[in-house]
Amino acid sequence: MLTRATIDRAVAAALEEDAPWGDLTSESLIVETAIARADLVAREEGVFSGGEVFAAAFRLTDPSIDVELVVEDGEFFRPGTVLATVTGPARGVLTAERVGLNFVQRMSGVATLTARYVAEVAHTGARIADTRKTTPGLRAFERHAVVNGGGHNHRHSLSDAVMAKDNHLAVLAQKGVSVTAAIQGAKARLPHTTHIEVEVDRLDQIEPVLEAGVGTIMLDNFSLDDLRAGVELVAGRATVEASGGVSLETVRAIAETGVDVISVGALTHSARALDLGLDVRIEVLED
What we know:
By secondary structure, this protein is of the alpha/beta class. The chain is built from 11 helices and 12 strands. It is elongated and about 80 Å long.
């Protein structure tokens, strides 16, 4: 999902936003011959994500800047770890610094939070998945970070799968159409490869949905007792996903009910950017 083209497009836009007519400070204070040598250093522990994105900020600013990634995406690090080194013209390094840091701090924050959720359910068969609650335009970056943290991706977009949620079901109810009939009708029109998921918020909705032959059933905001009952009702006839009310404090108990997937919007909408810094040393080349 996170291709070089996707990276370059977003990073180029960020650089244009940050320095639309150049970096006035660096260009007026730093001599053109100055060379910067910098280390990307962790100020706290976490899981690294966004190395290629960090490097792109410098490459797109000045192709002569060299970035060496010391730590790979998905690798755990401790405070004081050097994650990458940057060498090249000081003006370019200073111009790209903030954009590169913004991306890698954000992505490493998502990866680190995801890893904490994954650790909480490691003793169960449940997988942690993200949602579409991502920063507009940066979904591929944040979802890449989720995978780096040991999580899994849900559908990427509305075009990827059928997912009937409460508002869809409310429209069907107003028209007097049964969920079973509506899903069966959709299946008749869709390619056989299309995955269908339906969200329910009551136990009595489960059987009508299963009768239609869905691939996944989402139990939304169910109590722990109802989650266990729901898993028993589904009895392996579909993948069971739990959603709603998921936090680091509740995710373990939710996983222990036997659900297959736990989708967590907080992975992307509530992750804190990690404290990573670029320690820069500047040398002026003599003629």
